[in-house]
Amino acid sequence: MSTKSPLHLDPAATVLTILGQSVAPTVGHGKPRTVLGRGVLLAAEIANCDVSLVYRWSHARERGGRGGYVPHEAAELLLDYARRHKLPLTPAHFSLFGLADLKRRGGSNR
User: Fold this and answer.
1) For the chain, what is the domain count?
2) pLDDT for 10-64, tens place per residue?
3) Which residue among 12, 20, 41, 54 is least packed, with the fewest CB closer than 10 Å?
Protein backbone atom coordinates (compact mmCIF):
# COMPACT_ATOMS: atom_id res chain seq x y z
CA MET A 1 0.00 0.00 0.00
CA SER A 2 2.00 2.97 -1.24
CA THR A 3 0.93 6.55 -0.59
CA LYS A 4 4.02 8.00 -2.23
CA SER A 5 3.47 10.48 -5.03
CA PRO A 6 6.05 10.99 -7.80
CA LEU A 7 7.05 14.19 -5.99
CA HIS A 8 8.04 12.42 -2.78
CA LEU A 9 10.91 9.94 -2.77
CA ASP A 10 11.79 7.07 -0.48
CA PRO A 11 13.13 6.46 2.05
CA ALA A 12 12.24 9.93 3.39
CA ALA A 13 8.61 9.67 2.26
CA THR A 14 8.18 6.41 4.17
CA VAL A 15 9.78 7.82 7.33
CA LEU A 16 7.53 10.90 7.21
CA THR A 17 4.45 8.77 6.57
CA ILE A 18 5.18 6.56 9.58
CA LEU A 19 5.61 9.65 11.75
CA GLY A 20 2.41 11.16 10.32
CA GLN A 21 0.43 8.03 11.16
CA SER A 22 1.21 8.64 14.83
CA VAL A 23 -0.37 12.11 14.79
CA ALA A 24 -4.13 12.62 15.00
CA PRO A 25 -5.56 14.45 11.97
CA THR A 26 -6.37 18.07 12.71
CA VAL A 27 -8.85 20.07 10.71
CA GLY A 28 -8.28 23.78 10.67
CA HIS A 29 -6.70 26.62 8.80
CA GLY A 30 -3.08 25.88 8.00
CA LYS A 31 -3.12 22.38 9.51
CA PRO A 32 -2.00 19.52 7.26
CA ARG A 33 -4.66 16.93 6.61
CA THR A 34 -2.44 14.40 4.86
CA VAL A 35 -0.44 11.77 6.67
CA LEU A 36 2.75 12.96 4.99
CA GLY A 37 2.05 16.58 5.98
CA ARG A 38 1.51 15.62 9.61
CA GLY A 39 4.75 13.65 9.52
CA VAL A 40 6.61 16.64 8.13
CA LEU A 41 5.39 18.88 10.96
CA LEU A 42 6.31 16.31 13.60
CA ALA A 43 9.75 15.66 12.05
CA ALA A 44 10.47 19.40 11.92
CA GLU A 45 9.58 19.70 15.60
CA ILE A 46 11.71 16.68 16.58
CA ALA A 47 14.71 17.73 14.46
CA ASN A 48 14.32 21.40 15.42
CA CYS A 49 14.38 22.61 11.82
CA ASP A 50 12.12 24.41 9.38
CA VAL A 51 9.22 22.56 7.77
CA SER A 52 10.45 23.49 4.28
CA LEU A 53 13.75 21.74 4.99
CA VAL A 54 11.93 18.55 6.03
CA TYR A 55 9.82 18.59 2.85
CA ARG A 56 13.05 18.81 0.83
CA TRP A 57 14.22 15.49 2.31
CA SER A 58 11.67 13.74 0.10
CA HIS A 59 12.16 15.86 -3.03
CA ALA A 60 14.40 14.98 -5.98
CA ARG A 61 17.81 16.62 -6.13
CA GLU A 62 16.78 18.25 -9.41
CA ARG A 63 14.07 20.09 -7.45
CA GLY A 64 16.48 21.25 -4.74
CA GLY A 65 15.82 18.30 -2.45
CA ARG A 66 17.92 15.59 -0.86
CA GLY A 67 16.84 12.81 -3.19
CA GLY A 68 14.79 10.98 -0.57
CA TYR A 69 17.45 10.86 2.12
CA VAL A 70 17.06 12.08 5.69
CA PRO A 71 20.20 13.76 7.11
CA HIS A 72 22.05 11.55 9.59
CA GLU A 73 21.65 13.98 12.50
CA ALA A 74 17.90 14.19 11.96
CA ALA A 75 17.61 10.41 11.52
CA GLU A 76 19.17 9.87 14.96
CA LEU A 77 16.68 12.28 16.56
CA LEU A 78 13.72 10.69 14.75
CA LEU A 79 14.79 7.17 15.76
CA ASP A 80 15.18 8.25 19.38
CA TYR A 81 11.68 9.78 19.30
CA ALA A 82 10.28 6.63 17.69
CA ARG A 83 11.81 4.41 20.38
CA ARG A 84 10.47 6.59 23.18
CA HIS A 85 6.97 6.64 21.66
CA LYS A 86 6.98 3.01 20.50
CA LEU A 87 6.56 3.87 16.81
CA PRO A 88 7.34 1.22 14.19
CA LEU A 89 10.30 3.16 12.79
CA THR A 90 13.64 1.35 12.51
CA PRO A 91 17.09 2.18 11.11
CA ALA A 92 16.17 0.07 8.06
CA HIS A 93 13.52 2.65 7.12
CA PHE A 94 16.28 5.21 6.43
CA SER A 95 17.97 3.16 3.69
CA LEU A 96 16.67 2.13 0.28
CA PHE A 97 18.20 -1.32 0.77
CA GLY A 98 16.70 -1.71 4.24
CA LEU A 99 13.35 -0.39 3.02
CA ALA A 100 13.31 -2.86 0.12
CA ASP A 101 13.97 -5.69 2.57
CA LEU A 102 11.17 -4.49 4.88
CA LYS A 103 8.73 -4.24 1.96
CA ARG A 104 9.68 -7.74 0.81
CA ARG A 105 8.88 -8.99 4.32
CA GLY A 106 5.67 -6.93 4.48
CA GLY A 107 6.69 -4.56 7.27
CA SER A 108 7.32 -1.12 5.78
CA ASN A 109 4.05 0.49 7.02
CA ARG A 110 3.56 2.04 3.57
Assistant:
1) 1
2) 999 999 999 999 988 775 556 667 889 999 999 999 999 999 999 999 999 999 9
3) 41
